Amino acid sequence: MYKRILLKLSGEALANKKDSSTLDSDCVSSIAKTIKSLVDNGTQVGVVIGAGNIWRGKLAETLGLDRVPADYMGMMGTVINAVALSGAVNKLGVKTIVYSAINQIDGVVEFYDKEKAKQSLNEGKVTFFAGGTGKPFFTTDTAATLRALEVECDAIFMAKYGVDGVYDKDPHQDKDAKFFKSITYQQVIDMKLGVMDLSAVELVKDTDLQLRVFSMEDAANIIKVANGSDIGTTVKRG
Known about the structure:
This protein is α/β, with parallel strands linked by helices and 238 residues long. A nine-stranded mixed sheet has the order 4-3-5-2-1-6-10-11-9, with helices on both faces. Helix 5 packs parallel to helix 7. The longest helix has 25 residues. It is globular, with a radius of gyration of 17 Å. The protein starts with a strand and ends with a strand.
């Protein structure tokens, strides 16, 4: 159903939920196998990973750090996660490459270049976009939308823990929360829904790029959505 996707993962997806380890081999391996299945099915895969398993803003506040250095620490955390998952995917026999929006780290990642990244995807390489946007004050949601637009993805897959799609309220706090099977970007903005940062939604509201939001509790959901399964919520232009 989708030729090229951008898989947006939280850093917590790579961590052990029980012992709070930063990187858990089983979690990393499970996601790597899912990505391999996508590639085997003929899907071109780009990946953006957060860094919540390594670094969070609350810790920066505790340490008394200003926003700018704290944001750069988060960007470097995304590089660590991207290199870790890239290695696990590569170990399964799938070619990968890691691009970073912060300056090149020789022998580890390449500096991000849109045309090179598109070529990597065309060659069937799982292409990781690390380092956020390369600038402070922007989240990995914004990085994901920018990269998806730049390399001409068909959809962003936002795999989430603890929620199976988009609701008008927090379903954990309000049993009457309404689930949306389909919704427009403009509705997300108007209702200020917490799907992703609203600044990121503004970037895609007038494009044909779809956003698929679904539960990551079962990693197989990624394959199901790629194959056309109508699970979770589809967000698109009105």
